[in-house]
Give the backbone structure.
Amino acid sequence: MRIATFNVNGVNGRLALLLDWLGEAQPDVVCLQELKAPQEKFPQQAIAKAGYGAIWQGQSRWNGVAILAKGRDPVETRRRLPGEEEDEQARYIEAAVDGVLIGCLYAPNGNPIGTAKFDYKLGWLERLIDHAGELRDVDCPVVLAGDYNVIPEDKDAYKPERWLDDALFQPEPRALYRRLLGQGWTDAVRHLHPDETIFTFWDYWRNAFARNAGIRIDHFLLNAQALARLEAAGVDKDARARQGASDHAPVWLDLANG
DNA sequence: ATGTCAGGTCATACCTGA
């Protein structure tokens, strides 16, 4: 089973690119973030025509998450984190597909630091940790995939010093990410490629992609049962190279059949 | 300090979030 996570940065604005990529990559499951579309404007028909069932949580202008499954409908298990019933921001959706439980998340960016946005980021990650603590011991493979908006280590940034004042690189969110790992989750891409320079995001400024001036912020966290089935993982950099691409590349992993 | 996207609007130029 190939699972991909892709911050698409506008599911309608980049629909043609998304459909091309789906057709070529043929992932079995896709977690999408930054739909930037209200619930009723999710392009369900086009995605169904491409062969994918979908569940999604939309929001006007910002955020928005979806889970696609090839040839079947994801079985929804929740569409927001516990403890955020009053939170309007569409940042989490979860479903079972073929015996694997998949959480699709879009953590807050949190910039600028020292503002309510940064505090919201920390609180959101705390809620994610609480929920992940419940999911870790579910008796099936569990995959938490998405845009964590956290640069885990110095080697996950092209030039770490350039990110010192950025919310994605602050000690607090990085410590929360480590706390998550400490619960018993494994960062799949880093696990398989411990010493490689791997980026998943390159900003639109300063020719960042051509210079490979990127950061690694899109992650797959696996519980023990998912880790036992992990075969391969990587970044589909070609998708980022296209005209009109998202600023993120899709990240993927393969799980052995259970 | 700079720079580039998308989506939305008291819209056809400017705002926010990233």
